Amino acid sequence: MALKIYDTFDARKKELVPVKDGKVGMYMCGMTVQDRPHVGHMLAFVCGDMIRRYLEYKGYEVTYVQNFTDVDDKIIARANAEGVDYTVIADRYTQEYFKYADLLNIKRATVHPRATEHIKDIVDLVETLVSKGLAYESGGDVYYEIAKFAPYGRLSKKKIDELQAGARVEVGEQKRNPMDFALWKAAKEGEPSWESPWGKGRPGWAIECSVMSTKYCGTTVDIHGGGEDLIFPHHENEIAQSEGATGQKFVNFWAHNGLLNLVGEKMSKSTGHFFAIEDIVREFDPDVIRFYLLSSHYRSPMEFSRERLAESRSAVQRMANTFRSVESYVGDDKPERSLDGLSGSDLEFWNRVTEKAALFSQAMDDDFNSAGGIASIFDIAKEVNLYLKAGEAPTKKLVLSSALDTIKQLANVLGILRGLGGEIIRTDDLPIEVRDLVDER
Ligand SMILES: [Zn+2]
Is the confidence at residue 105, as pLDDT, over 60? Predict the structure, then answer.
């Protein structure tokens, strides 16, 4: 079955045809490592990880790249406030990211490049843009001149004159047009800086993503992910930089995830409604959190609340109960027979299981509809529960335990229900007295 992906740029679903046969290059905008990750960040990375896992399940060799922005205004401000080097801050929150990524079963990217490790490549790209007349130097800064790139605004569907009316110039900036954005910033007192043809300075925000995505995924990237709050200006600027320099299409599929809403407000670092993942894992098992984050289609906005998380916890517990029931019915005699010679009610049951499993792929092939995928996994569990109650049949133990294997396989594609594979212990499932013992220890 063909895999279709919604592309924000073309505003429609298109069949995935990778640049290189059998391989997919995917770039995910990573964290600016200035603070503890919040659940809004982790949603984007869980969605990206789910997409990557499904591509791998489909047999693609995926180069998955997720960067760390390890130098920026906020990192520097925090370092100055704490009286430490900016690298101390960046390293600390990079480690925090990995800690929670591991808990949420987010696989390590093929490469996790950092902006400061690519300064030379960044300077080279800025030089190319200057030499092509798309960028200009001004007081040690280098700006991209939007007016020189006609397709600007096409990703975000914004009109240049509307943008122009809303653009503001910050103190000290000398731009030809308020919309022009910084590719390179001149060094200020007390800031980390690197040598460049325009004097000492540091990169602007979007330039590193243009550099690192093409460096690791090729001139045209198959899939570029990130939260929809990055569409403008970040991704719009990436297109201007990359296509301005190469003259070739930068990204074939822009896959943007919807944002989390907390008390009706968009959760991003600027709203102040900061919901650290560190706090959430104290209350909810990471397995439940991941399940919840994938229980809606990645492009839909999500409501974030304890109630929604509690619903996901109940669903995960229901699945655990199904597993326990089958395991106690099957007992120790693990059936070794093949599924080839099934007949009667066993065959009918098994056909229903494979039918539901096919619906999983159908949902996932339709723009990674993980909500539909999860629904079909639970439909298999429903069949299992019904068949458990039905009368005896010759290979009932075999088909029931095979159905559990199917559930585990599909759950593994999404990276959910890890507890069923015995990887983690869900303390919230244990009887109170056992939980107390665990807590004591
Ligand atoms: Zn980015």
Answer: yes
CA distance 180 to 41: 27
CA of 284 to the centre of ligand 1 (A): 30
Read off the pTM: 0.92
Q: What is the pLDDT of residues 137-153, one digit of tens each?
A: 999 999 999 999 999 99
Is 305 within the bounds of a domain? Answer: no
For residue 17, report the distance from its CA to the centre of ligand 1, in Å: 23
* Whether 275 and 318 share a structural domain: no
Q: Which SS3 state, helix, strand or coil, does residue 302 take?
A: strand
Number of domains in the chain: 2
Residue 170 per-residue DSSP state:
P
Q: Which tokens in the block code for residue 10?
A: 């073309």
CA of 282 to the centre of ligand 1 (A): 30
Q: Are 256 and 238 spatial neighbours (Cβ–Cβ below 8 Å)?
A: no
CA of 307 to the centre of ligand 1 (A): 32
- Nearest-angstrom CA–CA distance, 199 and 191: 14
pLDDT at 431: 43
Per-residue pLDDT tens over the stretch 3-58? 999 999 999 999 999 999 999 999 999 999 999 999 999 999 999 999 999 999 99
Q: Could you tell me the residue range of the domain that residue 124 belongs to?
A: 4-279
Q: Which ranges constitute the DSSP H helices of 58-85?
A: 73-82
Whether 255 and 168 share a structural domain: yes
